[in-house]
Write a structure and sequence with these properties.
GO terms for molecular function: rRNA (adenine-N6,N6-)-dimethyltransferase activity. It comes from Hucho hucho. It holds the Pfam family Methyltransf_32. It is a single chain. The chain has a domain at 8-57 and 68-83 and 111-130 and 201-362. It contains 16 helices and 5 strands. It has helices at 11-28, 34-40, 45-53, 68-79, 100-103, 111-131, 145-153, 165-182, 204-207, 216-221, 226-235, 241-256, 276-283, 297-304, 307-319, 321-338, and strands spanning 135-139, 157-161, 190-192, 342-347, 358-363. A 3-stranded parallel β-sheet has the order 1-2-3, covered by helices on one side. Strand 1 (135-139), helix 7 (145-153) and strand 2 (157-161) form a beta-alpha-beta unit.
């Protein structure tokens, strides 16, 4: 069944969900069963989107009989994931109507960033009004775009905290330019440097769960945008070719340089439009190999012909991306709960345009007898 929204989960249910997530990831992440391969190898990209990734699709048509374990894998991945549809949107309405920032962009910021800043800033202002607060701390403020919007746009007193001195310098420069433009003598947001090591896991509960560890690769996988890939699959985008290109080149890299256990390949602009030989010539130097390395054309050709299977494999991994993200965010919710702070996960942005769309919102109450309910916008 569909998993409950975060605001309906009790503290005990949050901990139990975290336990279920770690068990699921530890048990099924590493291996793709042979019988699954036999079922999935002939799926077209649109079928992968409809049958695997789209949790809202109810009109599924199967060309063969699926293993029950594969059905269970899909159902479990969907059930353990926090809903990502913003309030007021129907599931299939996501991504259809573009936010205002995407329609006419006259700003130096990308529309995606404008969409996030406008939505998150508005939510922060509503919380400040609710709690009679006028001071905000932006941890990890980067170049300070959100701090500027909160300060200059919404009238809040903002302190930005950023660990990268280069970003702090850029933010100060932008602030100065904005002050000069507005001829506003009021103080602009200040920046402080932080070197916090907090990340994952944060909560004592998740740290104590068997199988809670996530590799860097797994945490990186949590950042992938399932909605964007569903669109690519249905459109049968040429960008899907990149999965096979990258897998083939990494195989070549490992064989030429065995000490490279997971040789990363840097992004190459419009690589899906290039012949593989050109892609390899550009990618080999990234791992310290000569661009003219002799390639076994028969072996490379055989690997490139496996493009369909590679796409299926990567999409199965993508099915786990929201599950991994849910575990990381749930760990933070449990951490706050351990500190006596109730929190909610709010799907604030349209995930089709801003994939990391879940916002963790918490109100720390001064005393237990003065607790108030927070009504979301």
């Amino acid at each position: 069944g569909r998993m409950m929204c975060s605001r309906t989960l009790s503290a005990e249910q949050q901990r139990e969900l975290a336990r279920n997530l770690t068990y699921f990831l530890e048990d099924l992440w590493a291996t793709l069963p042979t019988r699954w391969q036999q079922i999935l190898c002939d799926l077209s990209p649109p079928q992968i989107a409809d049958l695997l990734l789209d949790r809202l699709n109810v009109n599924r048509s199967y060309s063969c009989v699926w293993r029950l374990s594969l059905f269970a894998f899909r159902a479990t991945a969907h059930a353990l994931t926090f809903p990502r549809t913003p309030q007021g949107k129907q599931g299939h309405g996501v991504g259809i109507l573009k936010p205002e920032e995407f329609l006419e962009n006259k700003n130096q910021l990308k529309p995606k960033k404008q969409h996030e800043i406008r939505s998150l800033g508005t939510l922060v202002k509503q919380l400040c009004d609710l709690t009679d607060c006028s001071s905000v701390v932006d941890v990890g403020s980067g170049q300070g775009h959100l701090t500027c919007f909160l300060s200059f746009g919404l009238g809040l007193s903002v302190t930005g905290i950023e660990s990268d001195p280069t970003l702090v310098s850029m933010e100060s420069k932008y602030d100065g330019q904005l002050l000069w433009t507005l001829e506003n003598p009021s103080p602009f947001p200040t920046n402080e440097t932080s070197h916090s090591e907090f990340g994952y896991p944060m909560s004592s509960w998740v740290q104590g769960l068997l199988g809670h560890q996530l590799s860097y690769k797994a945490r990186e996988g949590a950042c992938h945008a399932i909605e964007d890939y569903v669109h690519r699959l249905r459109e049968e985008s040429g960008l899907l070719r990149m999965h096979c290109y990258r897998a083939t080149l990494e195989t070549v890299n490992r064989e030429a340089k065995p000490e490279l256990r997971r040789p990363g390949v840097q992004a190459i602009k419009k690589a899906h439009l290039l012949p593989f030989t050109v892609y390899a010539r550009l990618g080999l130097p990234c791992v310290g190999l000569p661009p003219d390395l002799l390639l076994d054309s028969c072996r490379v050709g055989a690997m490139l012909r496996q493009e369909g299977c590679v796409v299926v494999y990567f999409r199965l991994a993508l099915l786990l991306a929201p599950v991994l993200e849910t575990l990381v965010l749930l760990d933070r919710m449990v951490y706050l709960q351990e500190k006596g702070i109730t929190s909610q996960l709010v799907p604030l942005f349209d995930p089709a345009f801003s994939p990391r769309n879940l916002v963790l919102m918490a109100l720390k109450q001064p005393t237990r007898d003065k607790e108030t309910e927070c009504t979301l916008p």
